[in-house]
Amino acid sequence: MATAPLLGLVPIGKFVFSHEDAMRYKRRLQQLLDAQGVRYVDLEGVIPDGMVRAQEHVAPVVAHLRQQGIDCLFLPHCNFGTEGAAGMIARQLDVPTLLWGPRDEQPLPDGARLRDSLCGLMATSKVLHTLRVPFTYIENCRLEDAALTSGLDRFLRAAHVANALRRGVRIGHIGQRIDFFWTTIVNEAELLDRFHIEVLPIDMVTFIRHVRARAAEHQAAYQREVAQMRATMEIVDLDDDQLRHILAVRDQMLALAADHGLDGLAIQDFDSLVDELGTYGFLANSMVSDTLPVACESDIHGAVSTILLDRALYSKEPVFLTDVTIRHPEDDNGVLLWHAGAPLRMRHPEHPVRVGHHWILPSPVSGMPHFPLHPGPLTVARFDGRTGEYVLAVGEGASMDGPFTLNNYVWMKVDNWPRWERTLIEGPYIHHTAMAYGHYADALAEACKYVPGLEAVRL
Predict the structure, then answer these.
(1) Closest among 29, 56, 297, 71 to 186, alpha carbons compared
(2) Bridging pattern class, strands 408-413 and 334-339
(3) Which of the four pLDDT bands, split at 50, 70 and 90, describes residue 106?
(4) How far is CA 387 from the centre of its chain?
(5) Is 230 within 8 Å of 354 (Cβ atoms)?
(6) What is the Cα–Cα distance from 47 to 44, expressed in whole angstroms?
């Protein structure tokens, strides 16, 4: 899942204008992709000069790229454009498609021009619209311009996100929906039919039985890890047996993901686990979510949200399902992103992990992680829906200073919080949102273009 998508590079030319100049741009573009570390396959050895210039090139190009298993398509117009071939290649491959061409230089001294790339792009865009092929467009710019490199990166991330819902994801649901959380009621059949989202039910009794067996089988190894935890964390009112069970919960979750090919997990969290193991399991969530998206409180749409954001990150950084909670006491554009079970990699380096009691639900049971998150740019995303209409809300902000609180949290500053708030309240959303560091809202919004029935909403 961490691997970036495989790009099919299909240079487009035409029998008119300079073929030599088109070949020069093809080679320069290949060099750029190599320098950027983009995974791609081209048409060398498939058609003459590795460039589409005629309608008869459609069949061999499509066959080659299907055999290579590309995830997305790039149609750079190197001198003009054979729009019919470009349109049919994109339609038959049916993958996210990128359209771009180099900015044309001034005419030669004799008035001739080496290419009319912009003109060709307009012709191909019309054909793509006619064939109902969605596509991403990068403005006509020079090859060395930042617009091309940033646009290419955004497109590749968008394609990776979109393909999650085009090809299918699997979410393991440990337990069942918490009865008083009506906000997490979902239509599993519709998710499967429309977005290829499969929810795998995992029986809580079986899960707890396996956790206990794992804790007993690996007691010595877990005890060594418990000693390390006590040396690096502040642990309140948890005995070694309870800590071993937390570690066993972590490993059972990871084992389920590996055994069933899961892209993410949703877990009930309470009350069964708490009652049976004598501890909250949110610290296990923190450990698992360092490498695998985890949604607490049986939030299936939340799990989808974390998986989509994880795809935009190429799974290189963790994702956290937060609560949107209170407004900043002094800044009208600030809001608190808070919950428990944040990835340990998100911890603020100046604050150690404290594992203690649940401050909202007074109880002698311990096991809740407490630590603030580190500063940085932020992206939030929420996949949700109602009565057959699905949306992906995306927005960006940055961390900000704010008051101390408990569990895992970061204060976020955005451009216009009252507008965000109204959008979230009036849309089909709940308080849970996926959160990650970095800015990826453009890629997430662009991904919706390739997922029928999913509308992007900008916060």
Answers:
(1) 297
(2) antiparallel
(3) confident
(4) 24
(5) no
(6) 7
Residues 62, 286: Cα–Cα separation, whole Å: 44
CATH number of the domain within which 375 lies:
3.40.275.10
Same domain, 274 and 315: yes
**Percentage of residues in the chain having pLDDT higher than 70:** 99
Out of 167, 190, 211, a domain closes at 167
The reply to whether 108 and 238 lie within a common domain is: no
Same domain, 380 and 449: yes
Instruction: Classify burial at 189, counting beta carbons within 10 Å of its beta carbon; exposed 0-12, middle 13-18, buried 19 or more.
Output: exposed
Residue ranges making up the domain that contains 183: 172-458
Q: Are residues 213 and 189 in the same domain?
A: yes
Contact predicate 211/245, CB 8 Å:
yes
CA distance 441 to 421: 17
- Shared domain for 400 and 428, answered yes or no, is yes
Question: What does the pLDDT look like over 433-446, one tens digit per residue?
Answer: 999 999 999 999 99
Residue 242: what are its φ and ψ, rounded to 5°?
-65, -40
Which of 135, 167, 199 terminates a domain? The answer is: 167
Q: Which residues contact 26 (CB under 8 A, 6 or more apart)?
A: 11, 49, 50, 51, 76, 78
Please check whether residue 183 is in contact with residue 176, taking contact to mean a CB–CB distance below 8 angstroms. no
The Cα 450–Cα 135 span in angstroms is 8
> CA quadruple 212, 216, 218, 222: dihedral positive or negative?
positive
Is a pLDDT exceeding 70 seen at residue 1? Answer: no
The total of structural domains in the chain comes to 2
Tell me what the mean pLDDT of segment 112-119 comes to: 75
Residue 345's alpha-carbon distances to 18, 174, 288, in angstroms, are 53, 24, 11
Tokens of 403: 């008051």
Which amino acid is it at 444? L
The pTM (predicted TM-score) of the whole model is 0.95
